[in-house]
Amino acid sequence: MPTIEHLGSILATAAVVLHWGIIVGLGLRIILTRRPTGVSLAWLLLITSVPYVGAGIYLFVGELWLPKRRMRLAQQSRTELSQVIDRIEDQWEMADDELPDLAVELNAHAQAPFGLTALGGNELKIFETCGSCLEEMLEDIRTAEKSVSMLFYIWESAGLVRQVEEAMVEAVKRGVECRLLLDSAGSKKFLQTRRATELRRAGIVIAEALPASFLRVFFKRIDIRNHRKIVAIDNRIAYTGSMNMVDPAYFNAGRGVGQWIDVMARVRGPAARVLSMNLAMDWSIDYRRDAKVHTSGPIESIRSAEPIERAGNIVAQVVPSGPDQASQLIHELLITLIYNTRRRLIITTPYFVPSDSMLQALVSAAHRGVRVSLVVPEKIDSVLVRHASRSYFQDLLSAGVEIHTYRGGLLHAKTVTADDEVALLGSVNMDLRSFSINFEISMFVYDQSAVQELKQLQRSYLDDSVRIELHDWQRRPVHSRLIENAVQLLSPIL
Q: I need a surface site. Which of 69, 152, 265, 441 has the fewest CB within 10 A?
């Protein structure tokens, strides 16, 4: 009969053999997928250095995939909107000779799910504060005639957001269809509250985007999130940008990072209709009780909507991105933009974990004489991301990139301006999660006055920031460099 010591030895040997079997098996799978070198090495490091746990993490979130049914519904929704897309392009598509030089390559490169390129005839209003945006949104909801649809990653019922909710309740009473599509993980707290139940009883339809729960871990990759921020009112007015549906005076007040600073835009014209279509498609996929639900509601309202009228003279291009696309579209567009900028590039982002190609593009831009400014918050709500971000500063500073840390709160605005020709705002962070995992929405604007307006806002961020100097950065403590460089090894999978 085996002794306890003998059984222990057998189990220990079996554990070691199993561990190395997992390493070999998953290692071969990782190598065969031919992902970026940094991503592959990060996963190999994790499954090798953290026995079993690393392998478990890889099995749950290591491979990017979506359920076939979701992909099928997405394709069907696009097909249902194809005639609407054709009509918009026929009337509003801009020719290359009508675009700024820097926009031509972006316009050619962008292959969004709708296939839409740059569209003229838009009006754009940029909001510097969440409060001013919410106040205008309230007025639009109060005058809505047919529908109010919203898609947000985070929803918190407090402050001005309570007023938005009440305005939607009043809209329902006068016959307006009101819908909320909220990310299941980001809005988890709200979705479980009594307030969500009250709003449902009042007639507001609330659906969860990409439902996430413990049991779903075994059937779906639950870290794929819908990070988009879109409001669509009567299919003629839309809002998009970086703001979650929260009042910054209340949201995360005890986290010690200050109020969140965001930028949003109110859009009218063809671009507003495209934003509405994006929201309608997401709704059609995530909200369904039977086989026919995804063909009704928001999609049907867009198909029967009145023709688009010219709202202004601004040219804009709406670019949805996410894991349902073959390529990392927004990442490729940003790389193209950085390489083609000639004089001035300003980027603001809360989370900065660039890919190797983006890091090289920024370094190259600085080397060829482009003045590049990167603005990040002094304090952020993710310790790992903070250390990973700082690990890239040495290379950027050495190349001549200006790095500024914003002191006025958690700078959550995701913006880019290039020369005086292109402006970008939306939900995309400058990190690998936004580039390849999450569903995001971005809007490129090709209008000099709009670029100047957004650039002026970026300058206000710069004025309230501290510039990091290379010689000071090189003197930081050794333990800081060690932590930052260690975390950087995992940055491809953060």
A: 69
Q: How many residues does the chain have?
A: 494
Strands 119-127 and 264-268, by their bridges, are: antiparallel
The SS3 of residue 318 is strand
Torsion of CA 212, 216, 218, 222, to 10 degrees: -20
Count Cβ atoms within 10 A of the Cβ of residue 23 and give its class: 0-12 exposed, 13-18 middle, 19 or more buried: middle
Residue with tokens 């020719």: 95
So where are the chain's domains? 4-61, 68-317, 329-493
What are the tens digits of pLDDT across the range 15-56? Answer: 777 777 877 877 787 777 766 676 777 777 778 877 877 777
Q: Which tokens belong to 473?
A: 């950065």
**Assigned token pair, 432:** 């690998």
Phi, psi of 127, deg, nearest 5? -105, 130
Active site residues: 227, 229, 234, 412, 414, 419
- The CATH number given to 68-317 is 3.30.870.10
**Cα 459 from Cα 469, distance rounded (Å):** 19
The pTM assigned to this predicted structure is 0.88
- Is 458 in contact with 374 (CB distance < 8 Å)? no
